Amino acid sequence: GRDISVIGFDNVNQSERLMPPLTTVEFSIIDIGREAARILLDHIENPNTPPEGLHVPTRLVARESCSQCL
Question: Whole-model pTM?
């Protein structure tokens, strides 16, 4: 058989309760909102400047659903 790894994105509470526990990427939704608002306000003030990309720190939470992550 084939080995399969599954990774989620947002580290909700249910991730660790699944069987097997889901490996996931964790990030701060507050940081995303703050950065998005800052980029939007900057673009409103400077409409001729192309908007920048959004970069938010993430962290891999390795659990049993990803054998290569442990």
Answer: 0.69
